[in-house]
Amino acid sequence: MESLRFLSPAKINLSLRILNRREDDFHNLLMVMEKVSLFDEIFLEKIPTGIELTVHGPWSIVPSPIEKNLAYRAAKILQEVSDTYRGVRIGLTKKIPMGGGLGGGSSNAATVLKGLNELWGLNLPPEKLVKIGVRLGADIPFFIYDGPALVGGIGDLIKPLKKIAKLWIILINPGVPVSTPWAYKTWDANASIEGRTKQPRSGVEGEAPTALPLEGALPAPMKRLTQENQNVRRLSTFEEVLQVLHNDFEDVIFPEFPEIQKAKETLVKAGARGTLMSGSGSTVFGLFETKPARDKAITKIRKKAAWQVFTAENN
Questions:
Q1: How far apart are alpha carbons 126 and 114 in whole angstroms?
Q2: Whole-prediction pTM value?
Q3: CA-wise closest residue to 38 among 90, 93, 91, 89
Q4: Residue range 240-295, pLDDT digits in tens
Q5: Which candidate, 81, 77, 74, places its Cα nearest to that of 42?
Q6: How far is it, in rounded angstroms, from Cα 198 to Cα 206?
Q7: What's the rounded Cα separation, in Å, for the pair 106 and 279?
Q8: Given phi > 0 = left and psi -120 to 50 = alpha, else beta, which region is 144?
Q9: Is residue 65 reached through a cis peptide bond, with omega within 30 degrees of 0 on the bond before it?
């Protein structure tokens, strides 16, 4: 086996709750995340030594130097931890909007880790890849596993979920860049004003992803998902998915970026049963129960504004 090709999926956050700020200045999160059918493409080819990366496609913005790219960094760190001399040529075609809360860069890194684990014959277990991935970014461990998941800690605690309800999705990227560090800083400032204080890390340390913190006044659907004595964790109906939709970042981002809120309101007016911003933005998504309802809505939306609009689905 000298080369492999992979699809690298985007994600949406069906729920994102910021539990507290840790002593190391990272934040404990509790999220429900799902992969969707918007993909980057990755080609991996063995070479004797070194790492080569080329980027193509409509979102082929490459950081300078190239060594900052997450796909490149994933290959580099896997070389180091596995103490291998092997090299790789990476071809990356970017179709997922950059910096839009869809996890494209994190997905690329996870796909490279999994792909090189196979291409180089390293046979590392997923738990090891998770530990490597979290060193590069909080969303990367989620992409190591297949399917939806309940994600906690700084992204390093993963509880895979059963296959959830079918979702017909419209994604709108309004083209407004939002800095994730700024979003967390603003949330911290608002939390302090509201009387919440910085808390020490709690219930998020350890080895493999085995337990999630049961923190704060979580809504009933989230409590149900986090109960340790529940054998089947599921969001098996469309209505159950709608019940968990929540993103703490919306409260701090919408006042500063009204175009993002406008995109969300446009989805509501077009008939989306549920709408939410993904991650720290700026992409928002609308959920539809049927494909005809989704397809009717997207015709309306594309007449409204010059946004990047995509259709997608889960599972």
A1: 8
A2: 0.87
A3: 93
A4: 999 899 999 999 999 999 999 999 999 999 999 999 999 999 999 999 999 999 99
A5: 74
A6: 21
A7: 12
A8: alpha
A9: yes
User: What string of H, E and C letters represents the secondary structure of 210-242?
Assistant: CCCCCCCCCCHHHHHHHCCCCCCCCCCCHHHHH
* Cis, peptide link before residue 3, omega less than 30° from 0: no
The residues carrying an active-site annotation are 11, 139
Provide the 10 A C-beta neighbour count for residue 21: 21
Give the integer Cα–Cα distance in Å for 72 and 109.
8
SS (HEC) of 123-160: CCCHHHHHHHHCCCCCCHHHHHCCCCEEEEECCCEEEE
Tokens 């196979």 correspond to what residue?
Answer: 118
In angstroms, rounded to a whole number, what is the distance separating the alpha carbons of residues 296 and 141? Answer: 35
Write the burial class of residue 206 (CB in 10 Å: 0-12 exposed, 13-18 middle, 19+ buried).
Answer: exposed
Quote the CA–CA distance of 264 and 24 in Å, as a whole number: 34
Residue 155 in this model has a pLDDT that exceeds 90: no
Q: What is the DSSP letter of 97?
A: P
Q: What percent of the chain has pLDDT over 90?
A: 65
Q: What is the mean pLDDT of residues 16-28?
A: 87
pLDDT at 21: 85
pLDDT tens, residue by residue, 199-253? 433 323 333 333 344 344 455 655 665 654 343 356 889 999 998 999 999 999 9
Nearest to 159 by CA among 235, 242, 233: 233
- The pLDDT score that the predictor gives to residue 212 is 40
Residue 278's nearest CA partner among 95, 147, 102, 59 is 102
Q: Which residues are CB-contacts of 243 (< 8 A; sequence separation ≥ 6)?
A: 219, 220, 221
Query: Average pLDDT of 156-177?
Result: 91
